[in-house]
Structure formats: structure tokens, C-alpha cells
Amino acid sequence: MAFVGNTRHTVPYMLKHSDLFDELPEAFYDSAFLDRLHFYIPGWEVDIIRGEMFSSGYGFVVDYIAEILRHLRNHDYSDQYRDKFTLSPAISTRDRDGINKTFSGLMKILFPDGGASDQEIEEILAFSTEGRKRVKDQLMRIDSTYAEVDFSYDNSEGKTKSVTTLEEREYPNYYFKTVETTEIPETATETVQTAAPTSSTPVSTAPASSASELQEQHLTFDENQRGISYDSLFAPYLKDARELTVTDPYIRLFYQTRNFMELLETFARQLPTGEEAKVHLVTVVLIDETAEGDKRKTRKIEWQEVKLCQVYKPGSTDKRHQATMGGPDEAGDQWLSCAIAQGFNQQDRMKSGDIDAVMAELDQHRNGKKGKAANKPEECHRYIRNRPGQFEYAAAKAATLTIGSGEIESSDSSIVQKRLKIPGAWWKPSNAGSMLCLRTLRSNGEWDQYWERTG
Length: 455
Hints:
By secondary structure, the protein is of the alpha+beta class. It contains 18 helices and 11 strands.
């Protein structure tokens, strides 16, 4: 049994004024019933489904995967963590059953054939425990007869690890409140009973850092953690900046570019009205491995974007990286080499019949490997090499013939398959050829002329 629905309020609002079960119908809002739930998955942590999330590979049809899952119901995977981890003895039988059933179900889906590492098993166990803890913590808010439970486990080394929920860490001031059930007048001040956080709950009471206290930090966030933005992370550091250099070789895909754009928006919001700033993106930094001494000082920034290289004087030293800036000519040569490697100008050479020049250019960039290990220039080189005489584009254009594959493929669909691939049709090669000749005449508008000549 599973309940799926939406909440009308934000998580902190529900924690402050009610509980996470507030949206359930009144008939189900009963502590004895809710205690039977094994897991509470926070839908607000689940990312919105987007097109890029769908797999482009093979998969199982729904009927087949459903049959597999039905068959797996006869198997119990809940014992696969017990060799390495032990749940706290303070966890009741009902809580333990909820954790075990969730763990078993996730293991069946993620590792049906076994083979999970200790780290993967621990991650699934902690996730299963967190879901059950979320149920129990809300029951404590609804019914005061429920006692606090230590949701933790021990690893093989005897080290105890406590499990907390994400909203517990994000909103500790609201999470441990129990709102009184007595009605409170609108003009009255809200009365709450505040339970002291357990020792396992991290509560941050540090004040916000002032500009004089800013320093380099390394922060770690939970998966799907909300409330984190570039403004909260970087705005204090960018407040008085007028020049920003970002060194990142991984700004290639759409989501990486989107993240970079959001950072620039944060930077722009810190600028006073009428002020401008410079932003430089460094995607390639080369180091001379043959140099003696500190190799870091031999780093040379070579821009893939010619315009960015013209920002600095050629040969000048970048203050941040202590690296020498390349000149526009040098950057332009690199840009051209990169473009040629990606196919720039090769299409014109193919159409003019200069196949040898294309092969010679590809030969400089291919890795000589086979299968999935082959790079794109290698695949292209092999494709042309294995099809001699099939790239006479210049002669075809001179004869006013079509060289685009789109028209050929479209003709195959509209002329060949539409007539020959009809239900129950069987063809001899000679008859199929004759039929295609007639189809071609008709498509070219030469049907009447043909029969006049043959008649």
C-alpha cells in the first residue's frame, strides 16, 4: 500500500504548525494506523522528471519487469547487512520490521544478483532507517505517548552511526517542537513545548560570517538538500569584486552551462548600479612536465576562446594562477586545430572530391583503437576507408544527382517500403525490381510518357 500526494505548505511551515502527515484524509490521520507505515519518502526531495533523465539504452517492458518484481517477493534480502552492520537494540520490533522491509525491497531493485559493496549496503541501510525515523518522529508530535527512539547502527568496527533526516538537520528549531493541541486564539501568542535535541542531531548556532571573517571553506551537502543557492554560498565573497576568473574544465554540457549562468547571475546581483565587472572562464591549463623545480609555476593558460585570450597582454602573468597568458595568434591556432579535429572544413573537401586531404587530416587525430575505445576521428577514418569509390560527390553533383542521405532515406520509405512491405506480400527479386521501376516512374511523373513509348 502506498499513498501519493502533494502538500499545500512548505516543509518548515508544516514542522512549525502541524506535522508531515497533515495532508492525509482525516480517516487515515490516526497514530495507530500511521505507525504501520514502513517508510516516508519526502517527495519535495525528488527531482522533477526532465527529458534528459530518460535512458537512451535498452530496457524491460512493463509486463516483464512487473513479473520479475512479483517473483522477487518470495525472496528476503533483509539479512544482507547483518554481517557488517547491527541496528541499535533500542529500535523496537515494529521499527526494525519497517527498516528491514524497505532495505530488502531496495536491494531487490538495485542489486537483485547481489554484489553490493559494504559502502552501498550501508547507504541503503541508512536510507531505509531514515524513512522509518521520519514516520516515528512525526508520531511523537501527534501522540505524546510515543517514546523517543535512537535510530542508529554499529558497523563491523563497533563504531556507532546515528541516522537523522534532512529536514531535521535543516530546520532543527522547528523539528523538535510539539505544537499543543489546544486551540489558541488568533491574538494569543503561540505556545509550544520544545524538546531538547538529542546528541546525535547536529544543530548549527554559528552566526553569519561578516566580511572580515570570510575564509576558504570546503562544504559537503546531502543529496537533494534544499535551501542551498549560489547567493547563500558565494554572494559574501563576490560583494566587492570587479573581476572574476573561473577555472573549470567541465563546462561542456547543458546543466554545467546552466550552473555557470546562475553563478554569473549571483555575481551580477552584487554589483552596484552603474558598475561593470569582467568575467574570465579558463577551461584549459597546461603544465610543462619536463621543467625543473615547481611545475605549478610553469602552468600556461591556453584559451580555447580567442576573445578571452585578448583580454590580457600576451606574455603577462595571471595573478591568480601565476601562469603565462598565451597570445591571440597562438590561441587562434589552437582554436583552428580544435575545429579541424571536430570536422570543420572537412565537408567542403568531401564535396569537392579531396578525400585524400580529409583522410590525412583525420589521421593526425585518430587513436588507432577499435570498438568503443575508438575516438570519433578513428571511427570516421575507418568509415571512409572501408567504402572506397562511394564518395564521388563531385561527379554526382555534375550529373545533377542527389547526394544528401535524407532524400534517399525518404525515398526508401515512400517508394520502396510503402509498396513492397504490405501485409502478406511476398516477392521474387525479379518481380520486386520490376515493381520498383514502375513506382519510380510514377514518383518522377514519367508514368504516361513510359507507356506511350512502350505502346
